[in-house]
């Protein structure tokens, strides 16, 4: 390394090298210190760092008080004892003539977001939640029981809070809800903050406010899902995909005991019982890790970072020279000098395209996290990684944060055609009484995947509907197709569609459709009953058929 950095003498370089080596050694395990971790949900890296070798290239806890034992002895409650799941059936349609090419993976996420945030979806779930809470939860624990709604995003939480307040006020219920999310959320042209939506209650005051009798429901978005201790929390409404440790930690907010608290309840809109069972079983008995973390993963990540060409090795070396110089420690100008040394990398990052920015930020974050962990159990003699970690940690703080929003968004291009929400499973989730294993990282975990292919929006809509579409039977679909043909064969309706606007045509079509349903009622009595008795079903079927009849009438020759 000597002689590479111009303007720096070799003695200063040697001093910096010594400081880097000392920094790397200080990060590793110290022979005179012992650390102990106590957790109900040990991750693989926790077991590897704090556990004991099991003699078979794995690690196990040095002491065990299992979830099963804690439940059996009444120290915690079994949160899987009363678990109900709902299934949501959607059908979405492309309502623009254009069929744009869009990135497939991002578009799928954007359509999922469109469905999840759709006002009809949120309002239907809010009605189920509030009525369930009033009829089944509110009287629990001597009338003090509380509930948590777990949402998938900050925007989701905002819409839940607004819909809750509106539904409660419309029905005159004696209920109040709080919401917990970070920062500011922009939604429908408005800005929302946690404090603003909670009538001025500060973030630090929120746990105490929820503990009072004034509030019964807490809506959360990536907050209060771990470490939150509220024994009066009895019921959880889940509208977010959960898996692994996250599922266990989130649902375990319910397991605290309290006088008069005899059970818990979970109503899950997003996950199946089998998925929750799979998440809990590794932590029910003794948890072990099956293999050691591969130190080579760090080298792979370092190579991937270099391949982005956001920074040069000379940038890393110059930064380390200044950072590890004892004369710069604690000086006022040190931070400004370090900031100027990462500026070229930040500038290169800023001129990169959005996809490259996301991938670089993700890879850098993975490297920093893995090095911080592995350097405590593996002694790295190579100062290259310590310098990259120090440089990367400073650079990461200087990078602008990602928006967290999908780069592809849909609004007027899509419409929700069908929607149905129905209970799918209820009862206990029985866990197998065996020891569980957690896997150590076997990949670098950057989240980088293959190239996002460009496909037509219509193709993506078809795939979404295959996965999330309503379970209308083939007979139902045929019946609706026959109704459409009846309307197209009606000369009066066909002429009306040609000469009227959509709004004026709707006035005539909607009334005629009911008559057509009655004429064919003996062909599908079940769907006829749904159409006549369920306003939501009637609305989506009417909108769907009205659109098709109007469109095909307009396109017909003559």
Short description:
Helix content is 49%, strand content 13%. By secondary structure, it is of the alpha/beta class. The relative contact order is 0.15.
What class would the helix/strand composition place it in? alpha/beta
Specify the overall morphology: globular
Percent of residues in helices: 40-55%
- Terminal CA distance: 83 Å
What is the average of the pLDDT values? 76
Query: Using only CA atoms, what is the Rg?
Result: 29 Å
The major sheet is characterized as: 7 strands, mixed
Question: Which stretches are poorly predicted, pLDDT < 50 over at least 5 residues?
Answer: 1-11, 441-450
- Count of individual helical segments: 22
**How many DSSP E strands?**
15
Strand arrangement, major sheet: 6-9-5-10-11-3-13
Known CATH architecture of the largest domain? 3-Layer(aba) Sandwich
Number of domains: 2
CATH topology of the largest domain: Rossmann fold
Question: CATH homologous superfamily name of the largest domain?
Answer: P-loop containing nucleotide triphosphate hydrolases
CATH class of the largest domain: Alpha Beta
Beta-strand residue fraction: 5-15%
């Amino acid at each position: 390394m000597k002689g590479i950095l111009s303007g720096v003498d070799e003695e200063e370089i040697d001093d910096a090298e010594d400081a880097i080596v000392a920094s790397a050694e200080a990060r590793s395990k110290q022979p005179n210190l012992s650390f102990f971790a106590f957790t109900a949900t040990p991750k693989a890296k926790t077991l590897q760092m704090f556990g004991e070798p099991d003699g078979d290239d794995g690690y196990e806890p040095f002491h065990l008080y299992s979830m099963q034992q804690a439940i059996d002895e009444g120290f915690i409650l079994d949160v899987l004892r009363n678990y109900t799941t709902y299934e949501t059936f959607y059908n979405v349609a492309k309502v623009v003539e254009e069929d744009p090419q869009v990135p497939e993976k991002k578009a799928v996420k954007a359509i999922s977001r469109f469905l999840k945030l759709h006002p009809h979806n949120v309002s239907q779930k809010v009605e189920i939640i509030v009525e369930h809470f009033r009829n089944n939860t509110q009287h629990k624990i001597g009338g003090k029981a509380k509930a948590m709604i777990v949402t998938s995003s900050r925007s989701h939480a905002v819409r839940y809070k607004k819909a809750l307040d509106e539904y409660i006020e419309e029905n005159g219920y004696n209920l109040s809800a709080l919401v917990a999310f970070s920062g500011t959320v922009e939604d429908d042209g408005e800005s929302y903050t946690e404090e603003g939506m909670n009538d001025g209650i500060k973030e630090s005051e929120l746990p105490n406010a929820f503990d009072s009798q004034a509030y019964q429901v807490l809506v959360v978005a990536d907050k209060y899902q771990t470490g939150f201790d509220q024994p009066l929390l009895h019921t959880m409404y889940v509208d977010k995909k959960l898996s692994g440790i996250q599922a266990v930690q989130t649902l375990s907010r319910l397991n605290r005991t309290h006088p008069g608290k005899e059970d818990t309840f979970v109503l899950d809109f997003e996950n199946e019982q089998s998925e929750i069972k799979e998440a809990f079983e590794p932590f029910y008995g003794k948890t072990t890790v099956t293999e050691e973390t591969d130190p080579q993963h760090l080298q792979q990540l370092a190579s991937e970072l270099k391949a982005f060409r956001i920074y040069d090795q000379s940038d890393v070396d110059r930064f380390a020279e200044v950072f590890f110089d004892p004369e710069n420690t604690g000086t006022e100008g040190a931070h400004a000098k370090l900031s100027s040394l990462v500026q070229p990398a930040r500038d290169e990052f800023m001129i990169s395209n959005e996809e490259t920015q996301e991938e670089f930020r993700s890879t850098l974050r993975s490297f920093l996290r893995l090095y911080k962990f592995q350097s405590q159990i593996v002694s790295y003699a190579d100062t290259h990684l310590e310098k990259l970690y120090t440089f990367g940690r400073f650079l990461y703080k200087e990078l602008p944060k990602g928006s967290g929003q999908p780069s592809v968004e849909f609004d007027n291009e899509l419409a929700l055609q069908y929607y149905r929400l129905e209970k799918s499973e209820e009862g206990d989730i029985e866990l197998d009484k065996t020891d569980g294993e957690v896997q150590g990282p076997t990949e670098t975990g950057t989240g980088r995947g293959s190239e996002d292919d460009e496909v037509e929006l219509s193709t993506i809509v078809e795939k979404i509907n295959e996965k999330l579409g309503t379970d209308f039977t083939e007979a139902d679909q045929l019946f609706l197709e026959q109704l459409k043909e009846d309307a197209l064969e009606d000369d009066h309706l066909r002429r009306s569609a040609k000469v009227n606007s959509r709004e004026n045509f709707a006035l005539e079509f909607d009334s005629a459709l009911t008559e057509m349903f009655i004429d064919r009622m003996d062909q599908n009595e079940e769907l006829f009953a749904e159409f006549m008795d369920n306003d939501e079903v009637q609305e989506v079927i009417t909108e769907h058929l009205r659109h098709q009849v109007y469109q095909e009438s307009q396109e017909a020759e003559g």
